Amino acid sequence: MKGTRFWSWTAIAFGALYFLLPLVGMFEFSLRMKREGYSFEAYRVVLSDPQFQMTFSYSVALALLTIVLGVLIVVPTAYWVRLRLPVVRPLIEFITLMPLVIPPIVIVFGYIRVYNTSSILPLTGNWWAPTCCWSSATPRWLCPTCTARWTRAFAPSMSPR
Amino acid sequence: MTFRIASVAAANRSRQALNWIGVIPFLLFALLFLILPTLNIVIGAFLDIDGHPTFSNIVKLFTPSIRSAFWISIELSLLTAVLGCLFGFMIAAAITFGRLPGWLRGAIVTFSGVASNFAGVPLSFAFIATLGRLGFVTLLLRDLLGVNLYATGFNLISFLGLAITYLYFQIPLMVLIIMPALEGLRHEWREAAEILGASGSQYWRMVALPVLWPSLLGTLALLFANAFGAVATAIALTGSSLSIAPIVLFAQIRGDVLNDPHLGYAIAFAMIVLTGVANAIYIVLRMRAERWMK
What we know:
The complex is a heterodimer.
Chain A: H1 2-30, H2 41-48, H3 50-83, H4 89-101, H5 104-115, H6 144-158
Helix pairs in contact in A: 5-6
Chain B: H1 2-21, H2 24-44, H3 56-60, H4 64-97, H5 102-115, H6 121-131, H7 136-145, H8 159-183, H9 187-195, H10 200-229, H11 232-238, H12 245-254, H13 261-290
Helix pairs in contact in B: 2-13, 4-8, 4-10, 5-8, 6-11, 8-10, 9-10, 10-13, 12-13
């Protein structure tokens, strides 16, 4: 039984090393802005940069909005399915598994094809019979300029991995 | 009488209809943001530019460059899934059976929850700051031990580097998923095995692992799918120097490389098929595994 304990601590120690070193490394790197030694200069510069403040608050707002929307959609559904409509449970479970099956980059690809439109309303960009921003002959969802512009703006923030 | 029965049936039916209203927001959301985009990809994979049905996109997947991208992706995902399973299992076993202090267990589970979602650009940056050419560990090894990591042929921006980085979210995911299975192993089984004279390794070989193997293989499939879909980490780390399937698709979305949108559909479709197969394995094996957990 003593052996178990020893091996457990060994596993934990190696795990801690692997998982903590990148965090330490990142922190150490962040202190290296000034040549003469460690300082919090990088943090000062970044925090006082209005561009960063804007991006950061945008990310935070986006994250909060996602949480609120997620809770608003999921909690009533879970309640409802559990108490009123147990029949659809397999369907709901299947749907909740779908994001595991479809890689984020793939779903983003799908979004671009379906929702890449200059209109506010979804599905009105007509991905079935569309015209492009700059050439009426090219469907929008085939137009590299339209999709590339849209992707540069949104795709990086939409794929978590 | 018949009228009353009819009215009760009608009331029942209207209540049934009312019941469906509650799930409409969710179903609508799923339809708009999961099902329609996916269908769009699946259908698009079988259409040519003029909208006629064709298999040529699927055939084009087998051109050498795309086939090799998929192949590297599969190798990378398999490797990180297997290693993630192995190390994650060791850590999960250590905190479940290792008689470690309670606070450590809580800390590890919480950390796993965070680390399994720590991916993309921040993760790549952390590894570049640690194992890159001027990284923390690289410099530490050089200054303290006189070992030049990069002279040994190691490079973070490579298959191996990417695998090491992926493990950062693969191992915690394994810990989180396999812990309930390990906790489901009953004390009585171990005691019974010991009373019958089994050694520790015999217990693991003949009792624990046969019970656990569906969970283990299932998690392996899930980790495979998880690594296969990872894109931001790979792009942030390697740019486009390592051609794996998600990066090829990303390049296709941005319109830089391939000038054939329907090939993009086909790549996306192939990725869905691969992760879909992996997840189907996971679901089937998990149902098998849950027989023992009841």
